[in-house]
Design brief:
There is one protein chain. The chain has helices at residues 2-40, 57-62, 65-86, 88-114, 120-158. It starts with a helix and ends with a helix. The chain has a domain at 81-153. The protein is built from five helices and no strands. Helices cover 82% and strands 0% of the residues. By secondary structure, the protein is an all-alpha fold.
């Protein structure tokens, strides 16, 4: 009986020693993390961020000639971008890309359900590629149609002489 008791005591002591070592290890890890956090916590200065601002007409009159030219160039640029965004062709191209992306995502989900496993990162890349391809096809189709229309117009007006 004494031998069994000694073995039990030895096992208990060993378990307690392991528990104490684990606690000490956790304390050391926490101390290291705290040191790292203190080092990382120093905020870095943010880089300068430029923001485009629209200049009001009141201030344009008071501005020197160089600044006035710059302001008019900015306004013209903003107007050109606005017109481009409002163009129906842009809406069609973006819509084609969105439809292709949604279709590719749906296709990936179907294949995933059948047992083919792929990551979400890969799925998003595939959707982006499908959208880009669809947008490119739509844009090229519009360009070809415009070229054909211009060629037809040129033949119709230049070929007739009286």
């Amino acid at each position: 009986m004494a031998k069994k008791k000694d073995k039990k005591d030895a096992i208990v002591e060993e378990a307690e020693a392991q528990a104490r070592a684990a606690k000490d290890g956790k304390k050391k890890k926490k101390a290291k993390k705290a040191k790292k956090a203190k080092k990382v916590a120093k905020p870095k200065p943010d880089p300068e961020v430029r923001v485009a601002e629209r200049i009001d007409a009141e201030f344009e009159e008071a501005a020197p000639a160089d600044e006035e030219k710059k302001a008019s160039k900015v306004d013209e640029g903003l107007e050109a971008i606005g017109k481009l965004i409002d163009h129906p062709l842009v809406a069609d191209i973006v819509a084609a890309g969105a439809v292709a992306a949604v279709a590719s995502l749906a296709e990936r989900q179907v294949t995933k359900a059948k047992g083919s496993s792929s990551g979400s990162k890969e799925t998003l890349k595939f959707a982006g590629k499908a959208a880009a391809a669809a947008m490119g096809k739509r844009f090229m189709a519009e360009m070809e149609a415009a070229k054909a229309k211009a060629a037809t117009k040129k033949k119709g007006s230049g070929g007739e002489e009286e």
